[in-house]
Amino acid sequence: MIYDICHRTRYSYASPVRFARCNLRLKPIDWDGQRTEGHTLTVEPSATIGTTRGTGYPVNVTRMVIDEPANELVVDSRFRVTVDRVAPEIYADDPTVGEVAAAALASRDLSAVAPANYLFASTMVPIEPAIAEYCTQELARDRGIVEAAYALTRRITAEFRYDGNATRLDTTPAEAFEKRHGVCQDFAHIMISGLRAVGLPAAYVSGYLRTYPPQGKPRLVGADATHAWVMLWCGPDRGWLGFDPTNACAMAGDHIVTAVGRDYADVSPIDGIFLGRNKQSIYVSVDVAPVE
What we know:
The chain is of the alpha+beta class and 292 residues long. The protein is built from 6 helices and 16 strands. It has helices at residues 97-106, 129-136, 145-159, 173-179, 184-197, 264-267; strands at 2-17, 19-24, 34-44, 48-49, 53-54, 60-66, 70-83, 161-162, 181-182, 202-209, 226-233, 240-244, 249-250, 255-261, 270-275, 280-290. Strands 2, 4, 5, 6 and 15 form a 5-stranded antiparallel beta sheet that branches. A hairpin with a 4-residue loop joins strand 12 and strand 13. The longest helix is centred in the middle third of the chain and has 15 residues, at 145-159. The chain is globular, with a radius of gyration of 19 Å.
């Protein structure tokens, strides 16, 4: 499937901002099953845009600096991506949860996708006893890794309610777990915490998800949003597979990967600082348009 992606972020400030410096993580990484073409980045008002560079994780970072007063800042990211990916199947000879955990500890890989990078607690995903106990019920050590991942994914979808008003960007996994409400970021953090608790390498994915309009209705331009899900290392043979605890499914042709890190802090689309008064409004519009 081919998609045209447009991700627009508009900041409106109560008074002119004299200086702003931001990190943009909007250029998609290379990942199995997808190919990106022609990424463009436009900023208004004009800004100094640095060279996009990689990090210690599969994330592309671009530094942006604005040094003239501005009441509004618009960042527009566009690209075309071809996705050729199907949901992973469960095989009888899949490694078990215990075997994958042991293989992760034995791995000597030092690359950005090395399992060792995603084994331990991170800034936004501590190991929480309550979450560990909950997730371990689906993660028996003798259970096949892909079967166990699907089971945990579906359980979180079934037992947690999507609620955009229940949490904030800085809500901890423990808080979202106690409420049983949240958004895709919360569900991904909860699942990652539980997977790491039993020694499984788990990463946070930032990207996009194709959505479908109600039957008989046209697709709404700009109605989509950024999405988050989980990447689980399933052993050296099966590698990294994606699971979406918000939608009870695995990563397939409707998922577009932008960045992969330990948690949201590693892959936030835009962060940074500005000099000015602290009142601002942020509007984000994402359009994932299939190319017919």
